[in-house]
Amino acid sequence: MAALFTCCFGCCGEGGSRHIPLKEMPTVQLDTHHMGTDVVIVKSGRRICGTGGCLANAPLHQNKSYFEFKIQSSGVWGIGVATQKVNLNQVPLGRDTNSLVLRHDGSVYHNNEEKNRLPANSLPQEGDIVGMTYDHVELNLYLNGKNMHCPASGIRGTVYPVVYVDDSAILDCQFSDFYHTPPQGFEKILFEQQIF
């Protein structure tokens, strides 16, 4: 009986510290290893300024992803999804098969083709929140929590959230702790090990 108490207290009590720290899950943020040469990333990987584009550090593996961008300062900008083959030094994106983006003028481009367009009275302005859902087929847009009914598709392969800026634009990325509740069935981006 004494051996039982010794083992129990020796393993769990003050006699022996066998604390095994949990592995901290990485945070989804803008990836400084996948950005244009004139891009500046600040605010713990959440804010982009300068000139060029940047991918997030997590691909969209899950079935239904949601993420947001806040327009802090207007200018030339674009947001959407892209493969790692996208040229992040060439703005605007959407000129090739490697990106599908909403541009600051309300147009949605992929492969140098306009796929859709926001209504003229619903163009994102400074201070607005643009939400995006992606389900591996369609990218959908939300302006300040309202569905814009502006779907676009066509991109293939493994994609990442992407954002580009130019002409003094500053955008903040929100990959969790959203301003608006994601649409039903959609959730924050998960790293692959969090899915299983």
TrEMBL record:
It holds the Pfam family SPRY. It comes from the Eukaryota. Residues 1-184 form the B30.2/SPRY domain. InterPro entries: B30.2/SPRY (IPR001870), B30.2/SPRY_sf (IPR043136), ConA-like_dom_sf (IPR013320), SPRY_dom (IPR003877), SPRYD7 (IPR035766). This is SPRY domain-containing protein 7.
